[in-house]
Every structure is written in C-alpha cells, then in structure tokens.
Amino acid sequence: MSTDSYVAFLVVGILMAVIDGQIIYRSGSGYLDQEGNDPEAASAMTVLITALFHLAVLGALALISTIHFPGGDALPGIMGRLGVYLLTLAVAHAITLGVLARRREERVVEDWNTRTAMVNGTGVVPDPRARESEVDAELREPTTTPVPGQEGRLPKVSPNLEHRGPYSTGQ
C-alpha cells in the first residue's frame, strides 16, 4: 500500500473512531444520568468507557492497516480494509452499549434498594437472603383459587361436565 493510501485509510479510520466515540460519550452520559442522582459519577463512568472504546478501536485500526488485502493500493484493497474496520467498529460499539446498559441496570438496582431501605425506615439496605422467605411463602400459595375442598398450590382438575366424572387420560 502506498503512503498516500495508507495515510488516507488511517485518517478516515481515526475520524470514524472519534465521531463514534463522541456519539457514545454524549448519549452514554445522558443515558447513565437519566435518574439524575449523581451526574459526576455518570460522567466519570462514561469517560472511562469511552476511553476504553477509543483505545480498542484505534488498536484495531492499527492492526487492520498492516494486513495485506487483495488489490493492494487499488480501491478494492482500501475498501476491503475499510469494510473490516467498519465491522470491527460496529462490534466495539455494540459491546460498549452493552457495558453502558449493564452499568445503568446496576445503578437502578442500587437506587431501588436504597429507596426500599428508606421506605422501610431502617436506613439499611436489606439483605436479599432475608427476602427469600417471603418469596418462598408466595410460591407456596395457590396459583388460582382452589375449588372448595381442594387444598394446595395446584388444585385438581374439575370433573368432566359431559359424564360427571374425572377426565380420562385416553387409555
């Protein structure tokens, strides 16, 4: 690959990485700060995630620029490199969105636990294992209102209406 095409490929790749990184930064900052509780923490986390994105994508650009593609200096060779780089950029973008979504999920759960603790008046975040007994009690309750005389979570099937007897199993 000639120096001109090599430099053009690198400039286009860097521009694409910077533009995508800015999109991630601006959108991610708003996405993490949607609750509005701690804007500095959301901004700091977005900066860290965006920096990691830039490092990974620019590293991939440097590696792809050294790979030999059929077509060499011609337009097909440059387009092949650019296509591989775009696919790499898309994968990196998707991974970054997953990281942002996971961080937001964790933050929502933390906020919910804090609000629950404040509502309970204890000021202490409840232990998730303490709630298991409540959940187990709910699971033992019937899913439907049983017919009188039928106890338990799964009531028996009502009798066949046509023959006034239990359902047959087809045997």
Give the low-pLDDT segments. Answer: none
Strand content: under 5%
Number of helical elements: 4
Order of helices and strands: HHHH
Radius of gyration in whole Å, from Cα? 29 Å
Overview of the molecule:
This protein is an all-alpha fold and 171 residues long. The chain has a domain at 3-120. It is 68% helix and 0% strand. It is built from 4 helices and no strands. The chain has helices at residues 3-32, 39-66, 75-120, 128-140. Helix 1 runs parallel beside helix 3 (75-120). The longest helix is centred in the middle third of the chain and has 46 residues, at 75-120. The protein starts with a helix and ends in a 31-residue tail after the last helix. The mean pLDDT is 75.
Please provide a brief summary of the model.
The chain is mainly α. Helix content is 68%, strand content 0%. The longest helix is centred in the middle third of the chain and has 46 residues, at 75-120.
Supply the key terms.
mainly alpha, 4 helices, Integral membrane protein, membrane, 171 residues, transmembrane helix, elongated, transmembrane
Give the helices and strands, then pairings.
Layout: H1 3-32, H2 39-66, H3 75-120, H4 128-140
Helix pairs in contact: 1-2, 1-3, 2-3
Transmembrane segments: 6-25, 46-70, 82-101
Region (Disordered): 119-171
Protein name: Integral membrane protein
